[in-house]
Amino acid sequence: MNLPTPIKTRREEYADQTRSALLAAARTIFTTQGFAQANVGEIAEIARVTRGAFYHHFEDKQALFEALVVSLQAAAAQQIRAHAVAEPNVEARVMAGAAAFLDSCMEPAYRRLVIQDAPAVLGERRCREISEAYPYGLLIAAVTELRKVGRLDCENPYLVARMIGSMICEAALLLDGAGSSEEELKQQALAIVARVFAAFSCPPA
């Protein structure tokens, strides 16, 4: 039985709009200026809210940054699922997901905030927790499933998944500023990922 979606009050709707405005403003400021140079006042001004409204939603600048990283990772995971779901088998879903993940990693906000700045701002452990709740979690699950059904020969599927994901993130950094060569280099990067993945693959029984 499907329960009806609760109707939000006007106050709840306004709170959601305020939070969304702050995240959108933060995305612009953090991407162009970096975390260290950004300030709460400018973010609040661009979002057209008061400082009081800012601190009602976020404890400080770091809390806002973390919320933005989570939203970017969630969006990346959604894009991966959307591209992988139509593929006929797990192997094809992994490669479709890898291509979608690389596309996400190449977006300026994701590249700057998630890959470059987040480890220093949030710490490696927290970044790992967030990534494994979203895009890396999908890759880990897929690699684990392939090992379980005998299609992947690896002792540690978690490590394999983490290393493949790290390769994709590194490729996104190398592609930054590639200009007209970007698409060609992107395809080369995906071919490398495919070869690494194939090195662990087992033929069907």
From TrEMBL:
One MF term in the entry's GO annotations: DNA-binding transcription factor activity
SUPFAM superfamilies: Homeodomain-like
Annotated keywords: DNA-binding, Transcription, Transcription regulation
Occurrences of domain HTH tetR-type (ranges): 16-76
Start-end of DNA-binding region: 39-58
Pfam families cross-referenced by the UniProt entry: TetR_C_41 (PF21351), TetR_N (PF00440)
InterPro entries assigned: Homeodomain-like_sf, HTH-type_TetR-like_transc_reg, HTH_TetR, Rv0078-like_C
Domain of life of the source: Bacteria
Coiled-coil annotated spans: none
Name by which UniProt lists this protein: Transcriptional regulator, TetR family
Organism: Caballeronia sordidicola (Burkholderia sordidicola)
